[in-house]
């Protein structure tokens, strides 16, 4: 096991790296290898055996995929490293986005697969948007035989920054047996389970090595005039200058160094560690890049976890200074500093600059907050939560668990800002919104484990409404004689259809005191009671009701009687007014790589969508934004279809736009279903 960071004397402050990249590219396996070759773990576990250091949670083990961030620590040549292994699933993107805000470098892990290169584009764009230094690690080089040059060319097409190959592979047949470092121009041969050994550069790679080295130097020369002059004059630049330039350009997110290897066979992993050691910016530099405020002690929370026994934990990176247990941030007192390492937690007494720790019971603190002794507040440039693209209606399996479920949901939302929940007044459902079905299923499993509450989930209902096409005048009398004094009310109303979006309007034009003024609000209340469920079974909108005449009785009339009469009048009037179903239409904006735009348009048409047009996505070369009106009833699994046609890349935002009449077979079916569910209740 790695020793506690308390006991390690660091020549340099601890640094942190995030492992990000498409699903299944081998991030958790790479973490395993990084820990193994640095001696933090004695033997390696495999994903398929559920035995890796990362992915310790039940949800991850059960699915053989990362479902949340894993934190792990190790030391390499006496320097402390924290690795944040992020889930690659596009549905769990929020977790990776937040983790990236806390690290000095991102290691983007990808596969040597030309067809999947495009799946890197969301994370690469995010890294460039926030100018986060990143290295590309092409993993699984033990599989396939794609040429490095072809790979780089394809990967370059999705990277906004120039890719700079740092090494070229030495191959024997399909197998990679070593590499040549393009800066030192030294060749190494892989030795399974051991560090690589230095060899002569084989003749077979000399030409490739020279060409690749020239490209590397040319890329660097774009950002340095001295280097450019040397190149033009055919002078070999000193090695230190090349290293210095590489380090500077990486720190400024001007270039993306590319390394390769095999996490499963530990190939290229020591090489990666060396690059990290020499080229990754310090925590001081990262704190400056992230705009950490001045002050002796500054930290930032990038993840919140509710642990069943220890309570709320705020995972934080210490940007500056020393945090000690019991200290206060404004009026929030810290209670416990924890060293999180895979699935285990131990206590610390303090945490210093560079470290990643969990801070205990900071109840008022949220993910994204910057902590200083003066207080805490959300960093201005903290990423907005991703919008929801998938919804489910949830209910506790056991009715008595209603309150427990609400508590569990609140904790879920705090842990994962891309989850929201709300009570839908129209359908009466509690709806959980997130980034996809797997995302919500993982959230529900997590809630069962942590909050001990089982919930069932089903497709959320569409909040249909209804209105009328014509109007009518109607007279209604409510009269009851039961024992003592009776009940009496009499109203004349006129019902009219209003234009779409007008809502509900109640007016009165009573003359001569036909109904005393004090009863009129009761009539309106009765009318409004009725509007909750119209003749088709849905809330009524876009209707005007005018009360224009009536009668009363000095003894038997009451608010109650007029309210009942108002409702009754509507009940009689509405079926005569040509009721019609209204379905909600959303304005949807879909972002997708241009090559998939025609397919997206076809999907929208097949879902009764009305395409409004498409245009280039601002700031996203090679992407389109397709705008359309889509019935909410067609939205439930839209994201599933969009992702399946776009290698998982399409996403959308949507907002309610208008209500639209729905008639014919589709409407009949909706009304029928409504009647069936009402009968079953
Ligand atoms: N052949 C080969 N397979 C690998 C390598 N690295 C990982 N794998 C396999 O790829 C699969 C996915 O590996 P993971 O480490 O879980 O990938 P990941 O990127 O962490 O996946 P998510 O976190 O779910 O996105 C597993 O079956 C691994 O055994 C490698 O270097 N070579
Ligand atoms: Mg993983």
- Tell me about the biggest sheet? 7 strands, mixed
First-to-last CA distance: 57 Å
- What is the CA-atom radius of gyration, in angstroms? 32 Å
Looking at the overall shape, the CATH architecture of the largest domain is: 3-Layer(aba) Sandwich
Number of domains: 5
Mean pLDDT: 94
In total, the number of strands is 35
| Bound chemical compounds | guanosine-5'-triphosphate, magnesium ion
Helix/strand class = alpha+beta
Q: What name does CATH use for the topology of the largest domain? A: Rossmann fold
Low-confidence stretches: 1-10
CATH superfamily (homologous) name of the largest domain: P-loop containing nucleotide triphosphate hydrolases
> What's the tally of helices?
17
In one word, what is the shape? Answer: elongated
Percent of residues in helices comes to 25-40%
| Biggest β-sheet: strands ordered side by side in the sheet | 2-3-1-4-5-11-6
Strand share of the residues? Answer: 25-35%
Polypeptide structure, described:
By secondary structure, this protein is α+β, with helices and mostly antiparallel strands. It has five domains: 5-172 and 250-286, Rossmann fold; 290-378, Elongation Factor Tu (Ef-tu), domain 3, CATH 2.40.30; 390-459, Elongation Factor G (Translational Gtpase), domain 3 (Alpha-Beta Plaits, 2-Layer Sandwich); 466-577, Ribosomal Protein S5, domain 2; 582-676, Alpha-Beta Plaits. Helices cover 28% and strands 32% of the residues. The protein contains 17 helices and 35 strands. The longest helix is centred in the N-terminal third of the chain and has 19 residues, at 203-221. The protein starts with 14 loop residues before the first strand and ends with a helix. Mean pLDDT is 94; it is low at 1-10. The structure holds guanosine-5'-triphosphate and magnesium ion. The site of magnesium ion has 5 residues, from helix 1. Magnesium ion binds at residues 27-28, 55, 66, 85.
């Amino acid at each position: 096991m790695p020793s506690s960071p308390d006991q390690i004397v660091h020549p340099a402050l601890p640094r942190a790296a995030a492992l990000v990249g498409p699903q299944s590219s081998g991030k958790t396996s790479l973490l395993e290898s990084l820990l193994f070759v640095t001696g933090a773990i004695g033997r390696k576990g495999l994903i398929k055996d559920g035995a890796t250091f990362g992915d310790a949670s039940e949800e991850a083990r059960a699915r053989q995929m990362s479902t949340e961030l894993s934190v792990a620590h190790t030391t390499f040549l006496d320097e402390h490293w924290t690795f944040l292994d992020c889930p690659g699933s596009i549905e769990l993107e929020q977790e990776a986005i937040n983790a990236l805000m806390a690290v000095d470098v991102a290691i983007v892990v990808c596969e040597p697969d030309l067809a999947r290169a495009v799946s890197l584009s969301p994370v690469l764009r995010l890294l460039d948007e926030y100018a986060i230094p990143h290295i590309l690690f092409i993993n699984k080089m033990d599989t396939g035989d794609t040429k490095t040059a072809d790979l780089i060319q394809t990967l370059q097409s999705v990277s906004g920054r120039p890719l700079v190959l740092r090494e070229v592979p030495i191959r024997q047949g399909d197998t990679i047996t070593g590499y040549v470092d393009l800066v030192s121009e030294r060749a190494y041969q892989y030795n399974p389970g051991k560090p690589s050994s230095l060899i002569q550069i084989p003749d077979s790679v000399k030409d490739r090595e020279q060409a690749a080295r020239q490209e590397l130097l040319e890329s660097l020369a774009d950002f340095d005039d001295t280097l450019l002059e040397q190149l033009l004059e055919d002078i070999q630049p000193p090695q230190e200058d090349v290293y210095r330039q590489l380090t500077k350009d990486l720190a400024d997110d001007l270039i993306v160094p590319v390394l390769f290897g095999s996490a499963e066979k530990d190939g290229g992993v020591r090489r990666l560690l060396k690059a990290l050691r020499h080229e990754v910016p310090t925590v001081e530099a990262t704190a400056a890049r992230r705009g950490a405020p001045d002050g002796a002690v500054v930290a930032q929370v990038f993840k919140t976890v509710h642990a069943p026994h220890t309570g709320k934990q705020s995972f934080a990176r210490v940007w500056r200074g020393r945090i000690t247990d019991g200290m206060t941030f404004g009026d929030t007192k810290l209670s416990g500093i924890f060293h999180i390492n895979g699935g285990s937690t131990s206590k610390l007494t303090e945490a210093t600059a560079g470290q990643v720790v969990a801070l205990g019971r900071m109840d008022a603190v949220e993910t994204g907050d910057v902590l200083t002794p003066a207080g805490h507040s959300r960093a201005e440039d903290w990423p907005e939560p991703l919008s929801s693209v998938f919804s489910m209606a949830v209910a506790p399996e056991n009715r008595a668990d209603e309150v427990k479920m609400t508590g569990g949901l609140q904790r879920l939302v705090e842990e994962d800002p891309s989850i929201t929940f709300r009570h839908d007044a129209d359908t009466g459902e509690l709806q959980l919104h997130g980034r996809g079905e797997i995302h919500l299923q993982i959230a529900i499993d997590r809630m069962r484990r942590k909050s001990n509450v089982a919930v069932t989930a089903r497709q959320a209902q569409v909040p249909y409404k209804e209105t009328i096409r014509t109007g009518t005048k109607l007279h209604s009398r409510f009269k009851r004689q039961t024992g003592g004094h009776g009940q009496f009310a009499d109203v004349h109303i006129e019902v009219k259809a209003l234009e779409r979006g007008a809502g509900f309007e109640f007016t009165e034009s009573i003359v001569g005191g036909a109904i005393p003024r004090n009863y009129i609000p009761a009539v309106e209340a009765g009318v409004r009671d009725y509007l909750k469920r119209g003749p088709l079974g849905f809330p009524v909108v876009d209707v005007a009701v005018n009360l224009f005449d009536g009668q009363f009785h000095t003894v038997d009339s009451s608010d109650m009687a007029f309210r009942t009469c108002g409702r009754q009048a509507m009940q009689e009037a509405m079926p005569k007014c040509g009721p019609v179903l209204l379905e909600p239409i959303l304005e949807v904006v879909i972002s997708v790589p241009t090559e998939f735009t025609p397919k997206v348009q076809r999907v929208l048409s097949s879902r009764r969508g009305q395409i409004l047009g498409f245009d280039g996505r601002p700031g996203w070369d090679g992407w389109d934004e397709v705008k359309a009106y889509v019935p909410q009833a067609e939205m439930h699994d839209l994201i599933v279809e969009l992702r399946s046609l776009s290698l998982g890349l399409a996403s959308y935002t949507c907002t309610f736009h208008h209500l639209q009449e729905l008639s014919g077979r589709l409407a009949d079916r909706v009304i029928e279903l409504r009647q069936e569910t009402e009968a079953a209740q």
